Request: fold
Amino acid sequence: MAMTFTLVSHLREQLSHLVRTRAERHAKEEREKEQLALEEEEARTRGTQVTVESFKAWKAGFDKEIASKRAREDEEKTKGLTPKEREEFKRVGLRLTGRQLFERGDRNLEDDTLLEEGTVSVDISQYERAGIEEEQEDEGVTFSDSD
Reply:
């Protein structure tokens, strides 16, 4: 009987050791898979580092692509236009936007090229502000203390 008990105890210890090592191996494999997945995700999101030279190269290519795209769009727009309409379209396209004027730093924004045909310049000094203020005062509500 003692020998049977010793054999069963030994087998139980070996079995628990085997189960424990399998569980530890499985957990280790899971941790390695997670670590590999994290490293792959980091490598995927890391991308290439941007340097001044690589940015300039990308920017030059991007500008060329945008210019060719705009040229194609302008060509498609002007296909069905008459020569006079094409000329007008090109003239309007060459006019600078307000942002471009601001960024250029040109303080003389009262350029004749900015004015459209048929516009009239107004001299503000012709109008008196005092007359407007008096009218506003007359229209105001007055309160009296008499009841």
